[in-house]
Amino acid sequence: MSDRRRRLSPRARLIPVLAAALAGLLAAVALGGYLYERARTGSIYHPHARFIYQAVPTALPSGPEGQAWPLYGYDAEHTRFFPAPEYVRPPFTQLWVHDVYALLEFPPVIEGNHIFQLGDNGVLAAFDRETGRTYWSRSLGRLSASTPAVSPTTVYVTLLRTGVPGIAGRIFALNYRSGQTRWWRDLPSPSESSPLLDGERVIFGTQSGEVYALNARDGRVLWTYRAGGAVKASPTLSDGVLYFGDYSGHVQAISEATGRRLWISGSEGALFGSGTFYSTAAVIYGRVFLGNTDGRIYAYDAASGRLDWAVQTGAYVYAAPAATNAPGIGPTIYIGSYNGTFYALNARSGHVSWRFDAHGRISGGATIVGRIVYFADLGSHRTYGLGISTGRKVFQKDTGSFDPVVSDGEDIYLTGYSALYALAPLAPLTALFSAQPPPSHGSRFPTLTRVPGRSGLQP
Fold it and tell me: Where is 332: in which H helix or E strand?
C-alpha cells in the first residue's frame, strides 16, 4: 500500500481522532482531580458551629506550682499559654547557656529548681534553673524526639530508639533528684509521643498506633487503645477525655479512665488518602485544634467530633497550636505552617486575624508567655516573639528551630538548635536601680551575682 493510501485509509483518519479524545479525557481527569482535591483540602467554614467561650487564667498559681512547667504544652489541655507577669517580656539579658551538643527538637520541663532537657541523642540532663549547673545526666537510649513529663518526685521519658537489640521503644521513670531509674517498660514500637502525666496515670502513643495508660508509680499497664496509624503527638486531656490525631488521618476522643473510644473523625485530606496528624492538639472553647500534613489547620467539636472549620495554608502543618484570649481580638489560635507563615486565627470562625511571614519553614509549636507568642523557624534557625494582638515583632534571636520557649514566671528558657538559654527580662533588673521597688516576684532579683561572670545589664 502506498504512503498516500495509508494516510487516507479509515484507520489512519481514526488515529488523530483517538489521540484528541485521549488528550481530552486526560485533561478532564486532571481538571476533575484538581477540583476534587481543592474541594477536599480547601478551607471549610461552618459559622454556626457550637462555640463555648472560656476565660483563661490571668495570673500564675501561688507557690511552687506557679513556677512549674511540668508537661509538653504546659497544661493537660496543651493550650501552650503561660500567664506570666507583664514584666516577663523582651528585652532580655542572658543568664546562662548550656550546650548539650545534640539536636534539640523539643523544649524542657520545669519542676522546683530543676529544669530537664532531653536531647535527640537520648540523653536527659537535669540543670539548676538559676545557675545552669548540671545536677545529673543520663544516657537512656540512642534517639528521642519528645519532651519529658515531671512531678515533684519523678521524670518520665519516652524513646524512639533504645540501642538495645530487639527492643524498639522504652519508657523510663527516673528519680527527680538523682536520675536513678524507678522503673522502665519495654515497648514493641518506638515512641516519640511526649508523655502526659495526670495523677497516677502516664499516657503516651507509639508508632504502631498503640496508646498506653500506665500506672505512674510502677509502670503497670492500665489499658491500651489501638489507633489506625502512628500516634506521634502527646495525648491532650480535657474533662476526662483524651484527644489525639494519628497517621491514618483520624482524630479520636477516648476515655481517660478506660481507653474506650468516644468518637473518631477523618481529615478528608490528600487526594488518594488522608493527610496525617503529627500536631499535638489544643483543647479549649469546646473544640479540638490541630494541624495536618494536608496543609490544613482543623477545629473539631470536642463533644461530637464534627468539623467546625478547616483553614488551608498551602503547606504541611506539623506545628502544635497555642490558644488564648488576646486583648482586642478575643479567642485566638496561633500556629505556623511549613510555608513560613505564622497565623493568628479567630478560634470561633477560623478567619485570619493577622499573619507574619518568617520567610522559612515553621515546624514546631508556638508558646504564649504573657502577651508574647514565641515560635522558631526551622529554615532560618531563628526564634521570634510577636505581640499576640498585633503580630508585631518584639523579639528575635538567631538560634532555635522547633519548639522555642518555656518559663518559670521569672525568666524564659529558650531551646536553641543544640543549646538551652536562660534569659531574664531587663525590666525587673533595671527597677533595682530606680526609686521604685521591683515587681513582686520573689527575692532572687536583688542578687545579681548568681551566675559567675554575668555581664550585668548587657542584653
Answer: strand 330-336
pTM: 0.85
Claim to verify: residue 22 and residue 47 sit in the same structural domain: no
Residue 254 domain-assigned (yes or no) = yes
pLDDT tens digit sequence for 207-237: 999 999 999 999 999 999 999 999 999 999 9
In a domain, 448, yes or no: no
Same domain, 227 and 373: yes
| 333 and 416 within one domain | yes
State how many domains the chain has. Answer: 2
Q: Do 31 and 48 sit in the same domain of this protein?
A: no
Along the chain (459 residues), what's the average pLDDT of each consecutive run of 10 residues? 47 57 57 44 85 90 86 97 95 95 95 96 96 96 97 97 95 98 97 98 98 98 97 98 97 98 78 77 98 96 96 96 97 97 97 96 96 96 97 96 94 96 82 46 35 32
Q: What DSSP character marks residue 235?
A: P
Query: Can you read off the three cell numbers belonging to residue 329?
Result: 481580638
> DSSP assignment of 8-53, as one string?
HSHHHHHHHHHHHHHHHHHHHHHHHHHHHHHHHHS-EE-TTS----
Residue 14 sits in the same domain as residue 68: no
Q: Give the cell for residue 186.
A: 519495654
Specify whether 109 is located in the same domain as 21: no
Q: Which domain holds residue 194?
A: 42-431
